[in-house]
From TrEMBL:
Source organism (scientific name): Marinomonas polaris DSM 16579
PANTHER family: AMINO-ACID-BINDING PROTEIN YXEM-RELATED, MEMBRANE-BOUND LYTIC MUREIN TRANSGLYCOSYLASE F
Family note: Belongs to the bacterial solute-binding protein 3 family.
Signal peptide (from-to): 1-22
Domain Solute-binding protein family 3/N-terminal: 33-251
Keyword Transcription included in the entry's annotation: no
Key words of the record: Signal
Keyword Signal set for record: yes
Protein name (Swiss-Prot/TrEMBL): Cyclohexadienyl dehydratase
């Protein structure tokens, strides 16, 4: 009898636990909207002008919401608080040029990758040959600009430790610092470097054809939310199948 009672108690506890466990996808459907955490400082993926969000991943978020039959609400965050905001339930998914990496996989769920890119530099027009290798940049007299909390900062700390690293809270301020001469080099990724090279003739991408690393972007989902992750991956597959991703890339100067 004791064994039976204990077994029944354990079974009922496990059953209650399973029932009580929230399912974020179900919650999104019930509430009628999905919340998207994004930094708003990484063109052309996520940009906030003070009133409106725009960019490739903003358009993807809107596409996801439409496919799911819900609205979308954007929540501005920072690179250093990206995972914390996810853990604190401030948003359902994080989007906006987020590099897939093992530390993020261990802290959350990561979607499949999209768009292969690599680390490169952004410099002023005409100075490419001065800063086209790690050795040339990794010197105390070279000022390197990075955004705090992202993979650019980690790259600089690892490979450019001898340089003078200048850290910025807002990633949008780094290209401006390059243009004004506040820093000599911005550590960035190929899509962002090429974007600034196109819109600003005073800036040039360095090593965009032969970047220092290779990675992919992805989206972050709270740990354990497998149904939401499966749904996001399914929608990403559908985007590729229908050519929606290429259309949105072209609309955001990524093609």
């Amino acid at each position: 009898m004791k064994f039976t009672a204990s077994f029944l108690l354990l079974a009922s506890t496990m059953a209650y636990s399973t029932i009580a466990q929230a399912d974020r996808l179900e919650d999104i459907q019930k509430q009628g909207y999905i919340t998207v955490g994004t930094t708003g400082d990484y063109k052309p993926f996520s940009y906030y002008d003070g009133s409106t969000f725009s960019g490739y991943d903003i358009d993807v978020a809107k596409y996801f919401a439409t496919e799911m039959g819900v609205e979308v609400k954007f929540v501005q965050t920072t690179w250093k608080d990206l995972l914390k905001g996810l853990d604190d339930d401030k948003y359902d998914i994080a989007m906006g040029g987020i590099t897939r990496r093992i530390s993020r996989q261990m802290a959350a769920e990561q979607s499949q990758g999209y768009m292969t890119f690599g680390k490169c530099f952004l410099v002023t027009q005409g100075s490419e040959s001065l800063f086209d290798t790690l050795e040339k940049v990794n010197k105390p007299e070279v000022k390197v600009g990075v955004n705090i909390g992202g993979t650019n900062e980690k790259f600089a700390d690892q490979y450019l430790s001898k340089a003078t690293i200048v850290r910025f809270e807002n990633n949008l301020d780094v290209p401006k610092a390059v243009e004004t001469g506040t820093v000599d080099v911005m550590v960035t990724e190929t899509p962002e470097a090429l974007y600034y090279q196109v819109i600003n003739k005073n800036l040039d991408a360095v090593r965009e054809e032969n970047p220092f690393t290779k990675s992919q972007f992805g989206y972050l989902i709270p740990e354990g939310e497998q149904r939401l992750l499966n749904t996001v991956n399914f929608m990403m597959d559908e985007m590729k199948l229908k050519g929606v991703d290429e259309t949105l890339m072209a609309n955001n100067s990524l093609k």
